[in-house]
Each structure stands twice: as C-alpha cells, then as structure tokens.
Amino acid sequence: MAKLKVRYLVIKPGRDGGQRHFFDPATRLRPLGWKTVRLADELARAVAQAQAIGAAIDAWREGRPAEVPPEHLEVALKAAPTGTIVGDQRATSHAAEAAPAPIRPGSLAALVAAYCRHEDFRELGERTRKSYGDNLKALEAWAGDAPVTSLTPRMFKTYWRDHRDRIPTKAKGVCGMAQILFGWARREAGYRGWIENGQLVQGNPAEKLNLKSARVERGEDQLWSDAEVAIFSAVAEDLGWPSIGVAVELNAWLGQREGDILALPAMRYRDGKLDVLQSKRGARVILPIDQVPDLVDLVAEQLERQRRGPWGNAVATTLLVCELTGGPWNENTFRRYFARVRRQAEKWCPSLAAKQFMLLRHTAIVRLAEAGCTAEEIHTISGHSLDTVNQILKRYLVRTRKMAENAFRKRLAAQESER
To answer: Which of 160, 271, 318, 386 is least buried, going by the fewest C-beta atoms within 10 A?
Structure first.
C-alpha cells in the first residue's frame, strides 16, 4: 500500500498503540505565525482538516481571505497567525488555551522528565545540555504521551524517514538522543520500579537503526595537512589575527573541542604541560607540550605577544586572547573571523575552502594513529572514549594513503626477512 502523503499532515504514535494526527507547518512558516495544532483522531477527518489548512495557507500567501469549510473553521483558526482572516473570522492567539497536559506515568514524556532531573543530564556541559534538551523536546512533541514500552525500532525508523529530507541532521540527532535516553533507562537502577506495571525497559528501540549519515561522508581530504595549517596560520598573522593561527596550529596537535581551546586558562600552562579540563564531560587531560619544540615556541610567542599588546600589562586569563578586545574569544566571534582568515587563505591554498576548525580534532587523532599510537594513547590526549576513538579511526584511517603505504612497507619488510 502506498504511503499516505498529505501536505502538513504528521502522524505520531499515541497512547495504547494508537495514532495522533497533527497539522505541522513547514519550518519557514513557523516564524510567520503558523502553529502546530492537533487534528481529529479519525484519519479521514484529519486529512480533510490538513487539506483545509493547506488551502488557507495558499490563500494567505496570495493575500486573500481563506475560504474554509465551516466544519474545519475552528482548527484552521487555531493554526493561522493572529490577525489572519479565515472564512469570515479573524484568528486570535490561543496561547491561553494551551495549558500543559499532565504527564502520564510510564510515557515517553515521563521518561524524559526523569532523565532531565538526574545528575547524568544535569552534570553535562552547558552546550551539551542545550543540544540534548532540544532533541528531547522533539521526542516529546513526536510521542510524548505514548507508553515507553510501546515504542519500537520501526517507529523510530519511520520518524527518521518522515523527517530526513526536510531536517536530516536533526532527524538523526533526535534518534540518537532516543538511543541515549533508553540506554540511560536500562542502566539506571532507580528507574526500574518507575515503568508502569513494574516492567523493565527491555532492549533499546532506538539502537542499531542503521540510519544513513545526514552529513557528507568524510574522507582523508577533509583532514588538515601540515601545509594547510602553516599557510592558514601565516595568513592569520598577516591579517592581524595571530591568535586564530595559534589556535589552529595548537589543535592540529592537541585535538580538543573548539570551546575548550578558546577557554584554555593561561595559568593551566605550567612546566611545559597544558592541563585541560574538558567542558563536555569533565574529562581532564595533561598535554605534554614540552615534547614538541614547535609548540613550546608557539605558546611562548603567544604569551609574549600578549605582553607586548595594546592592553598594557593586564594579565590575560586565557591562553588565546582576542586581538580586538584583549579578552577571551567569544565562540561566535571566533568563527566569524576564522571564516574571514580562511577566505583569504583560499587564495594561496584553494583546498582550505573546505576546512573546518572542528575537523582539527579528528586530524590530530588520525595523525597520532598514523604515527603508530594505540587507541588508548590517543584517548589520553583527545579525551574521547575508546569507542569514539575507534569510530573516528574507522571513519578516516582505512582510507588514508599513509596507512596504506605503511601496510605495504611492513609486508615488503616481512617478505624480505624471509628470503
């Protein structure tokens, strides 16, 4: 049977295995005032309501009053922006009517609430909590009142298929958040008596969904070469933003998150070691910069540059200081000026057009592996879990020319030793 496709109609899991129907405006319509509204439980009536609202949107775009069948007028008025003429009535705000529904025990919304109260969520870094929170809200909007035990892998796969064309990265992120949520539910002993009727969470319905990556497949060409790092840094200094070049050169070795690099306290650089407390999960790594003479010189030049800067003898709180303000880099400002430097650097090295700061983290991991470092050794530098290190190596390493060359050299040496 062909899949039902009606413009703006979204079908979500409901209580006791049933279905709920919603008018869900496209992303570009929401800022203009169009709102998500619940449609009839009967599918045929929900289809008619969604089609009526769609016709109202078409009329609204053309600047004429929308003609809506009387039986669908109420729901169309709820969906329309305040002030829009629908039929012979003007849409008004329904915010006062939208009182939050009570959370049903045993539902996905109750599981989300339990997770958000737990220290595993509350102790995450601020940015991670916000990202998780956005995806948890999307999960609740999709199936918040559905019993946890009724959700299946097929439902999550269907959610992803329904959203991947419009919001591919978000669709995959929501499914990934569901995997984290159910994994937590299975691990958390205090949660076991909470599921209705004392049932445990059996398995993880959002695990092993085999979703295609929403991002372009990454290959060796997305990693930074030594030449690209050097050219970018030289251009940054020439443009008067040397700290941006220092950030790139440092992270090509250190493999840290952008926010952690920008927030590195100057006082945590002592005796040639950089003591990094990562913001995402609180992991602490001690990076032996004194083992790499170029990095020692780089940091020394950066500190000296700060002392000679236009801010007098003020002591910098961070290792990297924004040349514009004399204070720490704001992440958004850093990205904006990083892009400016990159545009200039492209003139000298066109391949830099595709380079992102975040991929310096992966570059450092792959270069360490190419040098023969184990996953355990790499983990002590990047702060990733061992599983994540191996995933990154799997993504890039098997396709790097250097590793293939190393493999052939080892085989050739083995053959020659047998002769």
So the answer is: 271
Contact 360, 255 (CB under 8 A): yes
Question: Tens digit of pLDDT for each residue in 317-363?
Answer: 788 888 888 888 888 889 999 999 999 999 999 999 889 998 998 89
Mean pLDDT of 21-45: 82
Residues 10-17: contacts with CB within 8 Å, 24+ apart? Answer: 10/162, 12/142, 12/143, 12/146, 13/142, 13/143, 13/146, 13/150, 13/151, 13/155, 14/145, 14/146, 15/104, 15/107, 15/145, 15/146, 15/147, 16/147, 16/150, 17/150
* Residues 298 and 248 occupy one common structural domain: yes
Same domain, 175 and 233: no
Residue 71: CB atoms within 10 A of its CB come to 11
Token pair for 116: 């958000």
- Are 289 and 296 contacting, i.e. CB atoms less than 8 angstroms apart? yes
Number of CB atoms found within 10 A of residue 88's CB = 9
**CB 393 within 8 Å of CB 375:** yes
Tell me if 259 sits within 8 A of 127, measured CB to CB: yes
Q: Which residues contact 343 (CB under 8 A, 6 or more apart)?
A: none
Q: Judge whether 203 lies within some domain.
A: no
17 Rama class: left (phi>0) / alpha (psi -120 to 50) / beta: left
> What mean pLDDT comes out for the span 242-266?
87
In the block, residue with structure tokens 């801010």: 311
- What is the SS3 assignment for 63-98? CCCECCCHHHHHHHHHHCCCCCEECCEECCCCHHHC
DSSP for 304-328? Answer: HHHHTSTTTTPPPSBSS--TTTSSP
Q: Are residues 233 and 366 in the same domain?
A: yes
Residue 181 sits in which domain range? 108-198
In angstroms, the CA 191 to CA 236 distance is 52
Average pLDDT over the chain reads 79
Instruction: Answer yes or no: is pLDDT of 195 > 70.
Output: no
